[in-house]
Write a structure and sequence with these properties.
The protein is α/β, with parallel strands linked by helices. It contains ten helices and five strands, in the order H-E-E-H-H-H-H-H-H-E-H-E-H-E-H. The chain has a five-stranded parallel beta sheet, sandwiched between helices.
């Protein structure tokens, strides 16, 4: 915790460097684009959504995609049911992609209000610039590759809903790989955590972190914005 310009990020970089020196693993959610490779002699692997990081429905997995559409994009429950039906159908035909999802929604015969809700949200994803059907980022592979580097997710300039989408995706992938023993325990550095995940989501991760091998470092100039359970834990 510290005032703006007091050196919080510099301290974080020092901590990360020492963790890497001791063969530890780190992920950083960088809200202001302050973690550049040059500052750490290429010990950061920086992913910028829409530039060198892209998502796809198969990459996320059907269930995570549905969860994100419901919790972050605010898709109503009636539309969630229809979305699941369409995705199940596409998956069974081995045609799971954003392009095919769009076609099934636009040309499908079902309730107009449900269709409108789906079109509105899928349009946002299509126009976001970081969803694509080919060339999506292999997050599983990157986690394994970046064993000697800190993985930095650069969230600078992204709207809050997209920041949430990216952070939720990375955290879900991280937790699953930790639970399955695919990666070793790691440190998560969260800059201004309140700006991209809600209290309920953080509470879930914080209360489970000691059991799954996730150690969270919060970095903020607004200590009142951090949830009280963070201090309790």
């Amino acid at each position: 915790i510290g005032k703006k310009g007091s050196g919080k990020s510099n301290l974080s970089k020092t901590l990360i460097a020492k963790i890497l020196d001791h063969s530890g693993c780190c992920i950083v959610f960088d809200i202001n684009g302050e973690y550049e490779p040059a500052a750490m002699k290429n010990r950061f692997l920086v992913l910028k959504p829409g530039e060198n990081m892209f998502l796809s429905i198969p990459c996320l997995g059907k269930e995570l995609f549905i969860t994100l559409m419901e919790t972050i994009m605010g898709l109503p429950s009636s539309s969630v049911w229809e979305l699941r039906r369409i995705l199940d159908s596409l998956e069974n035909r081995n045609m799971l992609s954003l392009k095919n999802l769009w076609s099934e929604i636009v040309y499908g015969r079902f309730n107009d209000l449900v269709k409108e809700a789906l079109i509105r949200r899928v349009t946002v994803l299509r126009e976001s610039g970081f969803f694509r059907d080919s060339g999506a980022t292999d997050l599983d592979g990157i986690f394994k590759e970046a064993s000697d580097k800190a993985l930095v997710i650069n969230l600078k300039g992204l709207p809050k809903s997209f920041r949430q989408l990216i952070v939720e995706t990375v955290l879900n992938k991280t937790v699953k790989m930790l639970e399955n023993g695919k990666i070793k325990p790691l440190f998560l550095f969260a800059e201004e955590a309140q700006s991209y995940l809600d209290e309920k989501t953080w509470e879930d991760y914080i209360t489970r972190m000691r059991h799954i091998g996730l150690s969270v470092v919060f970095i903020t100039n607004e200590p009142d914005s951090l949830m009280s359970f963070v201090y309790r834990q």
